[in-house]
Every structure is written in structure tokens, then in C-alpha cells.
Amino acid sequence: MKIYIKWQSEAIYVYLLAFIVISLPYSHLLSSLGIAALAACWLVSGNWPEKWVRLKRNMPALCLLTLFAVFLVSLIYTDHFLRGWWEIEKKLALLVFPLILGSLQLSDTRRIFILKAYVFSAVCSALYGVGLVYAHYLNHTAQGMQMNFAYYQWILPYLHDFLVPRWTMFAGGAALVSFWFFLRTKKWLYALLFLFLNAFIIFLASRMALVAVWGVFLAYFMVKAVQEKKLYLLVGPLLFLVISSGVLWYASPYIRSKVNNASGTSDRTYLWRAGYEAWLQSPLLGHGAGTGTVAVEEVFLARGYPVTLKSFEVHNQYLSFLLHYGLLGLGLFVAAFLTAFYGGWKKGNVLILLLLPFFYCTFFTETLLANHQGVITFALLFSLLAGSPIQHVSKY
């Protein structure tokens, strides 16, 4: 009876996690309700001694939990308490997922189910987004006011409650999960999903996401070639990247113009300068939750930088942590990465070794943990995979 009850409770966790990742691109309310239900199930399930034993052995999860404690402490010295609470609320996933998944022991079969739900959600949201844009295009064509291609790429984030950084993170992570499934199962469906999700990122013209996904893709084969002393393993990936880059460069004037004109980069340069100066005002503990962006705005205006921005997020996750939580917050964030990466390397956890560099590369140009979707995606995948590798995949 106890075994049956335990199996049933694990099944509830798995279905709730799958519900969260499937609803995440479409509804913040639904995904939040899923997280609340997940937390409620964890609280009523009891078995605290066993949970504590598992949690204290999971160093990556403990790093994230300590980081969240730093977020809470920063409310003591922030100048904008209510805004700080709002920032903490957005980062609740960094408490919930490490605490719950770090204290559970989900089987490989169940974790694979969640990952498949994640890939399915990313593919569906990509198709939905492209469908929205195509409908917009048909509407303009019918009215005789067709715009150029660049317009239809940029219009995507504004047709619904989506932002490009959220989608590129969600789709980029799913692309690498599909690539990992292909490596383990040799099923070409996963290779096609990998290519499709890459095509969607290209459609969004997100340069850093492309660099991150393709960089991790190439790095995998470089390590494999060195380990097995088979340099020919690099030929295929290199040819793929060269041909894809060439086709992309010559076939898409939009992306070429973004690279040549550095669209968006000049604003980021001003934000990074202002963010660095604001951080120097309180380097150890930062300005506190909710106050960092205010400090950036003050420096930005004091220096007379051109104001063409809707917000003063610094578009760099590391600098954002420095601003809000100082060297202590950034140190814990980096420690979470290092412990998870070292553990993944030691245990042969290929999937976490693929995903971590992707996330931490995209953090250089986006504050992806400043919105609910970004925090949930990162915290869920990190907590699900950092503890132990998935061993048995081939039959899936």
C-alpha cells in the first residue's frame, strides 16, 4: 500500500510539472496555479527526514536556495520595498523548484516524460507564434498594405503576451533537449525538432541565442573528438554551421542588417555603462531587490545618455545580480553553475552540460530571470537535471 501511495504521489508531481511547462508559454496564471498545486502536494506529503537527507546532498539546489535567501535579506536595505517584493515574487520559482525537486527522487522515466512535455510545448508555441504572424501577413495582404519581412519578424512579440527573450530561452533549451534525445535514441524525429526550433530562433533573429545553441552544439563534438581521438567527428558539425551561417547571411537581409547595424547593441552599451557605475555605489550587497533598475535610471539620466528605452533592465543577468544583490548574490549564482557543471562532468550528465552553457551564455545579453517565464524555465530544468543524470533513454 505504501509503495502504491508513493507511486501515485510521484505521478501527481510529474503531471503537475508537465502541466506547468505546457502552459508556461501561453498563460502565467495557469503555470502559477500549477506551481501552487505542486507546492501544496509537497507540503501535505510529509516524509520530512527523507526529503532533508536528499536535499542536503544536492549542492546545486542548496546554492539556489541560499541565493533566494539573499533575495529576501535584500528587502531589509532596499529603498523600494514594494517593488522589491514584486521582484521576489517573480523569482519564487528559484525557491519552489530546488526545494521540491531537490528533495524528490523522480525516476528516469518520469523525468523523460517532463522533458518531452517541454519539447512539445516549445514546438507548439513556435507553431502558434508563426501562425499568428502569418495571419497578420494575410490580413495586411488582403488590405493591400503588406509590410517588409523585417516588420513581420518584429511584430511577433507584440501580437500576444510574449517577449523575444522568453521565447528564445524556451525554444533554445528545447532545441538542445531534442539534440540530446537524438544522441541517446538515434531517432531522426528529434533531429528534425532540433532543426525546426533552430529555424524558429532564426526567425526571431536572436543573435545570442543562435550563438549559444550552435556554440554548445559544436563544443559537444569538439569534446567528443578529443576524447575519442577522432577528429573527423568535427567535419559534419563544422560543415553544418558554415553552410547554415552562409545561407542565413545571404538569404536574410533582416539578420544581416541587425548584425551590420548592431540593432539593440548601442542601447545595451549605455545600459551596461550605467549599470556598472550604479553597482560601484554598493558593490558588496547591491542596492536591494527592486532598486537596481532605479539606480541605473538615475545614472543613465545623469550622464545624459539618449533615452529610447521602455525600461532600464540592464540586459545582462550577471550585472543585474550585481546591481540588486552585489558580489554575494552573483557569487552564489556562479557557484550554482560551477557545482552543477562539475557534478555533471563527473557523473557524465551530458544534458546538464548542454543546457548550462546555453543558459549562462544567453545571460550575457538578457536579464532572463527578470520575468516569470524565464525564471520558471531555468529553475525547473536546473533543478530537474542538476542532481543526477538520466541513464536509461534508448527505449524512449
Give the total of beta strands: 0
Reported for the largest beta sheet, the result is: none
Main structural class: mainly alpha
Q: H/E element string?
A: HHHHHHHHHHHHHHHHHH
Helix content: over 70%
Low-confidence parts, pLDDT < 50 over ≥5 residues? Answer: 1-5
Tell me, briefly, the overall form: globular
Beta-sheet strand percentage? Answer: under 5%
- N/C terminus separation: 29 Å
| Total of DSSP H or I helical runs spanning 4+ residues | 18
Can you give the mean pLDDT?
Answer: 82
Brief write-up:
The protein is mainly alpha-helical. Helix content is 76%, strand content 0%.
Structure, described:
By secondary structure, the protein is mainly α. 76% of the residues lie in helices and 0% in strands. It has helices at 2-23, 28-45, 48-56, 59-73, 81-90, 93-101, 108-142, 149-159, 164-185, 188-204, 207-228, 235-251, 253-261, 265-280, 292-302, 317-347, 350-362, 372-385. The radius of gyration is 22 Å and the shape is globular. Residues 1-5 have low confidence and may be disordered.
